[in-house]
Amino acid sequence: MSRIAGFVLIFIAPMVFTLRAHAVVEQGTGATSAATRSAATPAETQKLFKEGEAALAANNLEKAEHAFKAVVAANPQFAPAYANLGVVCMRRQQWSPALKNLEKAARLDPKQPGIRLNIGLAYFRQNDFRHAIPPLESVVNDQPDSAQARYLLGLSYFYTERWVEATDELAPLWAQQNENTPYLYVLSVAAEHAERKDLSERAAARLVAVGGDSPEFHLIIGKAKLAEEAYDDAVQELTTAAQANSKLPLVHYYLGMAYMKKANYPAAQEEFLKDVANEPDVPFNYDELGNVYFQLKKDVESEKAYQQALTLDPNMVSSYLGLAKLYTRQGNNDKALAALDRAAKLDPQSSNIPYMRGQVLIKLGRTQEGKRELDRSIAMSNDRREKRRQELEGPGDAPETSPR
Q1: How do residues 200-259 score in pLDDT, each as one tens digit?
Q2: What is the pLDDT of residues 104-122, one digit of tens each?
Q3: Angle CA 45–51–56, to nearest 5
Q4: Is 1 or 222 the better-scoring residue by pLDDT?
Q5: Is 39 exposed, middle or buried (0-12, 13-18, 19+ CB in 10 A)?
Q6: How many CA atoms lie within 13 A of 306 on its CB side?
Q7: Within 10 Å of residue 175's Cβ, how many Cβ atoms?
């Protein structure tokens, strides 16, 4: 996954769940076996949960995970522990286990909107806006005053080009957000597409008034131009922002991405290295540097950059895929297959990975295995297209019944 695909505008921290907001752990359901319940007393389990809360507050994710897993081992019906395990995974950007824990929590406590908000947020952070919409809609229905849920829902509508719905959700946030330049930009665009000219012009005028000539303003416009594939305009805006504030978070990253889109790889390399200098512990910079070096045929530097990205984030699928492409080009198909195997474990739903694996397996002489992988890739792609078609078209008319 790219650092921030498209034009993601906001940061909302996942909601953490406490004992104060829920029934205490000793009130578990009768579904827990006597053997499991005897593993820890109610007081010990409550103490474990509080230890997990404290560890999570201190961002000690390993300790928090250990504590919450001990709680669910003692009481498998306690929703807040699963919810907080989901938060632990979200902070690690481990989206599949995050959703697994959050959905378990939601089944146990379906009336808790905060859990559904986190589910929507987990999808949103993966740029899977279509799947973010249903849980966020349910939160807004239950809590119309939830500004976080409404903002996320409005943005999810925006990214799926549901302009009228996006405008309807974002417009009520004007009083809280009219100093927020990203909000104003999105609202102006959504309202324009929704043919609400007065609101679009109002938001655009406010955007200019608030943003002025600040580097943050040019960064926002540059990101928007990048998302619109207006790469020359993106470079112009982002360069203006970088010249005004070379330490502005993400400015060199986005400028590097704009140069990548223009196939100006030396300039992209320079920008990503500047972002590394500003934020040396961000894996996405090294991942993109790996891509740049790959294009420049600097194989040693490319491999080193991908490996550095994986050192910082072992779950970065794109770096494994980058390594696989690099090793394939070098004719080192065994290493390419090993990288693809790691990627497949992290992203089993990808149709691209079995396609790449199929090609590598054929090169290794494992023709039948390779063909099966290629067939699986095609089947997965077809299934995805069919599901998308059904989502767009909706259910067909029910067949008429014959009169009796």
Answers
A1: 999 989 988 887 788 888 988 898 888 889 999 999 999 999 999 999 888 999 999 999
A2: 999 999 999 999 999 999 9
A3: 130
A4: 222
A5: middle
A6: 22
A7: 7
Provide the pLDDT for residue 34. Answer: 35
Q: Report the length, in residues, of the chain.
A: 404
The pair of three-digit structure tokens given for residue 134, joined into one six-digit string: 């249903």
Say whether pLDDT at 350 is over 90: no
- Give CA–CA dist 209/254, Å, rounded: 24
Do residues 168 and 153 lie in contact, with contact meaning Cβ atoms separated by under 8 Å?
A: no
Q: Above 90 in pLDDT, residue 292?
A: yes
Which class is 1-133 in CATH?
mainly alpha
The amino acid present at 159, given as its one-letter code, is Y
